[in-house]
Amino acid sequence: MYFQKEFECMSKADIKKLQSEKLVKQVKYVYDNVECYRKRMDEAGIKPSDIKSIDDLQKLPFTYKSDLRDNYPYGLFAKPLSEIVELHASSGTTGKRIVVGYTKNDLDMWASCGARMLTSIGATKDDIIQISYGYGLFTGGFGLHYGAEKLGLTVIPISSGNTERQIETMIDFKATILASTPSYAMYLAETAERMGVVDKLSLKAGIFGAEPWTEEMRHQIEEKLHIKAYDIYGLTEIVGPGVAFECDCQEGMHVNEDHFILERIDPDTLEPITDPNKLGEIVFTTIDREGAPLIRYRTRDLGTVNITPCKCGRTFIKLSKPQGRSDDMLIIRGVNVFPSQIEEVLLKNPEGITANYQIVVDRVNNTDTLDLFVEMNPDLFADDMASIERLQKQLVDKLRNVLGIGAKVTLVNPNSIARSEGKAKRVIDKRKLI
Ligand code: DLL
User: Fold this and answer.
1) How many Cα atoms sit within 13 Å of 434 on the Cβ side?
2) Which ligand 1 atom is nearest residue 237's CA?
3) Is 321 in the pocket of ligand 1 (CB under 6 A)?
4) 336 within ligand 1 shell (Cβ under 6 A)
5) Does ligand 1 have an atom closer than 6 angstroms to the CB of 90?
6) Is any ligand 1 atom within 6 A of the Cβ of residue 208?
7) What are phi and psi of 223, to 5 degrees?
8) For a pocket test of ligand 1, which of 100, 218, 331, 431 has the largest count of ligand atoms closer than 8 A to its C-beta?
């Protein structure tokens, strides 16, 4: 089943033609409406009229997360705020978040992307979807919500948290589809097991994404909840969930190519990668976004593609699960965390501590843990335990403010964190996510 067969099953030639037409318009649109793009294109000596088809895409400069940060909050918007009807945001590399705006048309396109991915997992208006992605500035909750609403499902907009209540709701409201991060799905499954109520659930499918997860984890979720688990991919900057989605064949995630042009590049040489099996950095150009369009946006996610025709009939190219990043972003409990954000908190609060620290990320009982070890300075070390505990607590609060998630902070003895002879190894990620 398809939601918009006329697009989802277009011939490759028609997709290329449509992408070309939309790209030409979009480049002119951003040049006319966004100063940053105009400057960047002028500097590169490119005029909108130089872009005649998708074959000219590579002439255009890349866009980076730092561009969103530098133009915080609204500098990359192509429409006045009077036409922006919704804002979403996610963490930037330091300090400020990156902000993305949607017009009414953008929301409608986003909803269609959501409806496509739900249709592709077999959802119909007879289904009841429990949306346990966070609602708010994070795109997960609203993205799934708009898609489900468009398709006519019954939505339980429960958001995340309060896990036993979630299970109770799922049972009483007879939810048939669960939408959440895979790690939260796992936690829900374990809680349902512990409560001894798995056989009371009516779930048949789950739509999971927003963080790396393994095939092993997929099987475990499927077994525990007696469902089929599907992967979806997206990022705040492009449109949140709805960029790419799995069909029943589960051989990669179909990219909504009528809205987003996919390129893959070598992150070092910036040359295009043409071998489908070779890992490349994923780059997207939004060709329909009005509010916050992005041209050649470097996602930093690394992936391969599957170009064999899909048995489901969809012609959109299939993207692998992201296989890592070309920057140091961590995803902890579904939240994007940059080590630089943590360092910034420490450097802004130097009292009692030194700049020697180590971040340890692990996964315990399917939940990510974030531990921060910071060396005390000799003065604090000589102080009483109460002062040390007070500072630990202050740092926990400050980190929660900046990161949006809890971290355990341990102040350790001076000179106890191993020094390295080269670059300091600040982050130890013990999870096996790929
Ligand atoms: O995570 C949007 C989303 C919400 C996608 C709900 C799917 C479901 P951000 O918070 O901006 O947006 O994080 C985007 O998360 O660049 C990837 O590194 C990672 N990511 C997203 N989906 C997947 C996935 C949302 N299926 C960043 N597998 C992206 C692995 C994923 N990583």
Assistant:
1) 11
2) 11
3) yes
4) yes
5) yes
6) no
7) -70, -45
8) 331
Contact 97, 91 (CB under 8 A): yes
Ligand 1 lined by 303 (C-beta under 6 Å):
no
Options 3.40.50.620, 3.30.300.30, 3.40.50.150, 3.30.479.30; CATH of 335-429: 3.30.300.30
Taking alpha carbons only, the member of 314, 258, 274, 316 closest to residue 20 is 258
Q: Is the CB of 243 under 6 A from ligand 1?
A: no
CATH classification for the domain delimited by 6-19+55-326, as one of 3.40.50.12780, 1.10.1200.10, 3.40.50.670, 3.30.470.20: 3.40.50.12780
User: Taking the complete model, does pTM exceed 0.90, yes or no?
Assistant: yes
Q: What residue ranges do the domains of the chain occupy?
A: 6-19+55-326, 335-429
Q: If we measure between CA atoms, which residue out of 176, 153, 167 comes closest to residue 145?
A: 153
Atom number in ligand 1 closest to CA 321: 28
Kindly give the distance from the C-alpha atom of residue 267 to the centroid of ligand 1, in angstroms, as a whole number.
19
Question: Which parts of 173-274 fold into alpha helices (H)?
Answer: 182-195, 215-225
Q: What is the spatial distance between Cα 394 and Cα 192, in angstroms, rounded to a whole number?
A: 35
pLDDT tens for the 434 residues of the chain, in order:
999 999 999 999 999 999 999 999 999 999 999 999 999 999 999 999 999 999 999 999 999 999 999 999 999 999 999 999 999 999 877 778 899 999 999 999 999 999 999 999 999 999 999 999 999 999 999 999 999 999 999 999 999 999 999 999 999 999 999 999 998 999 999 999 999 999 999 999 999 999 989 898 899 999 999 999 999 999 999 999 999 999 999 999 999 999 999 999 999 999 999 999 999 999 999 999 999 999 999 999 999 999 999 999 999 999 999 999 999 999 999 899 999 999 999 989 889 998 889 999 999 888 899 999 999 999 998 889 999 999 999 999 999 999 999 999 999 999 899 887 777 789 999 997 66
DSSP H or E segment with residue 241 = strand 240-246
